Amino acid sequence: MKRILIVKxxxxxxxxxxxxxxxxxxxxFPGVKVDWAADEAFAEVVRWSEGVDRVLxxxxxxxxxxxxxxxxxxxxxxIAELRAHRYDxxxxxxxxxxxxxxxxxxxxxxxxxxxxQDLGERGAAFAYTGRFGPRPQGSAWHGMRISxxxxxxxxxxxxxxxxxxxxxxxxxxxxxxxxxxxALFHATSKADxxxxxxxxxxxxxxxxxxxxxxxxxxxxxxxxxxAGQIAAQVPGATVLAQMSVTEIAQMIDACALVVxxxxxxxxxxxxxxxxxxMIFVATSPxxxxxxxxxxxxxxxxxxxxxxxxxxxxxxxxxxxxxPVLAMQxxxxxx
Length: 334
Prior knowledge:
Its EC number is 2.4.99.23. The protein has 334 residues and is of the alpha/beta class. The protein has helices at residues 12-18, 20-28, 43-47, 60-66, 69-82, 97-105, 140-152, 197-209, 221-231, 245-253, 264-271, 285-288, 308-319, 323-333; strands at 3-7, 33-39, 54-58, 89-92, 111-113, 130-131, 181-185, 213-216, 238-239, 257-261, 276-279, 296-299. The chain has two domains: 3-152, 3-Layer(aba) Sandwich (Rossmann fold); 176-323, Glycogen Phosphorylase B (Rossmann fold, 3-Layer(aba) Sandwich), CATH 3.40.50.2000. Helices cover 40% and strands 15% of the residues. The chain is globular and about 60 Å long. The model is unreliable at 323-334 (pLDDT under 50).
């Protein structure tokens, strides 16, 4: 096994949670090269992975919106780059037309994708020479690891390894001497995933009382206005300036705690091993949630609005000293 291509095109949270597939493959096949095909909008996130050898990208999303000639030329150029190497396997863990087209264009006789009932778009099946087994029940993130292992013939072992290394920030705007920093990702791309502003205010106030400096990121004018409403009622809270994806990732890395809805940046916080609470209102925590003992947890059932109390209990859980460490400290004190 010399070279493998992973195809996962979008979006931020899905790509972040798919990255452990790379560590699995490299453990199973020492010395193998692993390339990754993604939309240009998320290519920088894949480049943070220390296990990915080559990132292939094209402005697919931007071209779909604007239909600009320069973007089309960039897409054609990316096809030449895609075909610069022959792959032992192409593993499409996305399962839609655009990912299938990438898989089909790659130079490989073995292109593996989902079974028809598991595809996001059934027509994507044209690209594949082989199929994964049926998607396992439970976490979508573990399911991707299982699918890749089935295609390549190895066993999934241990917890997921994201293996991310961020670029060093130009400045350190979130100094720790002001106390621990907590980021509240209140914004979400879909209205039905939102948690009430009154709940965010209550959590923000509690964190402020606990000595946290509360930061409020945003991505649109409407989200900035909502961040302002929360900050006006939370002592010491800061509405951040608009930031790039990399700058937000660096901000997350400076945090002691991240609380947010089911969005890509909260998945990134989990991957960066931050203390993370993810709040689910309309999506499935079983399928899309984050869990790591005493570090990350998901709140809600995906069908109703989680209470403020449930969120605070989750915050207490991820901030608690791990039981084994507590026992060791107690023994040492005795």
